[in-house]
Every structure is written in structure tokens, then in C-alpha cells.
Amino acid sequence: MANLEDVPSLDLMTELLRRMKCSSKPDKRLILIGPPGSGKGTQSPIIKDEYCLCHLATGDMLRAAVAAKTPLGVKAKEAMDKGELVSDDLVVGIIDEAMKKPSCQKGFILDGFPRTVVQAQKLDEMLEKQGTKVDKVLNFAIDDAILEERITGRWIHPSSGRTYHTKFAPPRVPGIDDVSGEPLIQRKDDTAAVLKSRLEGFHKQTEPVIDYYSKKGMVANLHAEKPPKDVTVEVQTALSS
């Protein structure tokens, strides 16, 4: 824990003002669902800042729990070392732990979970024990063909994370980062073949989750093929209702 005396005054004031602004925001517990490349990663930081939520990405949380050697993290590492999938109960337990942090006081954005109906049911049970529930599920609906164009055209500058797209946001010089002049790379999973298998998994496993939450009247369908600014407007409309 940092000693507050050592924190610059401007940083303290900025954080105080942020917390005061956040105190008047409504609590939100959100799930983002969509295939790879549908724009969840673009919208989640905007939603997080607007509603003062914590962003719970299950992959990151698992890695953090393993690194911190929490009791659940130790169990998760045992499963991973054996090449097994981490059980749904363990993942829900890690989410439960993460939600107790002060940054999750106003609610959370869950991204990458639940991927199956069983996971959704376990998540609901855990939230029910806490006396809360999911408020809204944002479904980033998009056609597979559009995703292929989006993903296979994506190029990345590895050290900065800057991303380009051959069609939508090309670098000034093909294959070269605008800022550093270093070469761009394409991620191994940004290929049509990998996308095809990931989409098959998404349609088979995760689409039923959308039906599960639709029956509860929680789903807002977004037109994820639109430009990011338009999707942001749709998100704001969905979350203000």
C-alpha cells in the first residue's frame, strides 16, 4: 500500500474528484458478449470510465490469482499444470474474490465470461448469494463475414500495442509503424482459419448464453458492425434505459 504522503497532490485531487463524480453514478453489473473482433475491447474502457466500474477479464484475473498464490489461484495453477481446464466453480470463485475490491464498488464489466449456460447459471447463483444480479447483457451482434475482414486485416506494433488495419486504418507505409518506423506484425490468431474455429466455438457454446439472458429480459442487441462512435451511442442508450 502506498503511503498517501508520498502521492503527488495533483494525483490525490484527481482521484478524489473522480470518486466524488462516481458516487452519484448508478450501480451497474454488465456482461459483454460477442465474437472475437466485434469491438468489446474498444467499448469496455469507455463504459468502465463512464460508469466507474471495474473491468473483470477472466483470463487476466486467473493469471493474477495464480501469480498472487491465492488459495483459488493455487488450485487453478494445479489444473493448468495438468493441462486441464480451470473448473467453472473456480472461475466464479475468482470473480467473487475480485468483486470485493474497492474499484468494483459501483459494479463491474464481465468480459470473456460466462461462455456457457452452465457458467451463466453459476454466476447468477453467486450473485444471488450477494443479494445482487446482472443488470444488462450487451450483445455485440455482427456478421461472420465482416469479422473476417476486420480481423485478417489487423496489424500490430508489438512494443506499443498500436493497431492498424489494411483497409480501415492503414499505416502511412505498408507494414511499418507510423511513430517508430519499426515493422508491424500480424498476431498468430488473426488468421481466417483460427477465426473460423473460434467462431464455431462462439456459435455453439456462447450464443445459447444470449438466449438464456434474453429470457430474463436483460439483453441489449448492438449493431457491432457500425463505426465505434455509433456503437458507443448505442451502448449509452442501452445503459440509460
Descriptive account of the structure:
The protein has two domains: 16-142 and 194-240, P-loop containing nucleotide triphosphate hydrolases (Rossmann fold), CATH 3.40.50; 154-189, no CATH class. With 241 residues, it is α/β, with parallel strands linked by helices. It has nine helices and seven strands; from the N terminus they run H-E-H-E-H-H-H-E-H-E-H-E-E-H-E-H. The strands form two sheets. Strands 2-3-1-4-7 form a five-stranded parallel sheet, with helices on both faces. A two-stranded antiparallel ribbon has the order 5-6. The longest helix is centred in the last third of the chain and has 23 residues, at 192-214. The protein has helices at residues 9-23, 40-51, 58-68, 71-81, 88-98, 117-129, 144-152, 192-214, 228-240, and strands at 28-33, 54-57, 107-111, 136-141, 154-156, 163-165, 219-223. Helix 2 (40-51) crosses helix 9 (228-240), helix 3 crosses helix 4 and helix 3 (58-68) packs across helix 5.
- Number of discrete domains: 2
SSE string = HEHEHHHEHEHEEHEH
Strand order of the largest sheet: 2-3-1-4-7
Tally of helical runs? 9
Under CATH, the topology of the largest domain can be stated as Rossmann fold
What would you say the CATH architecture of the largest domain is? Answer: 3-Layer(aba) Sandwich
- Low-confidence runs: none
Number of β-strand runs: 7
Mean pLDDT: 91
Would you state the CATH class of the largest domain?
Alpha Beta
Structural class: alpha/beta
Q: What fraction strand?
A: 5-15%
Radius of gyration: 20 Å
Quaternary structure of the protein: single chain
* Distance between the ends: 39 Å
Supply the CATH superfamily name of the largest domain. Answer: P-loop containing nucleotide triphosphate hydrolases
Q: Major sheet: size, sense and barrel closure?
A: 5 strands, parallel
What is the molecular shape?
Answer: globular
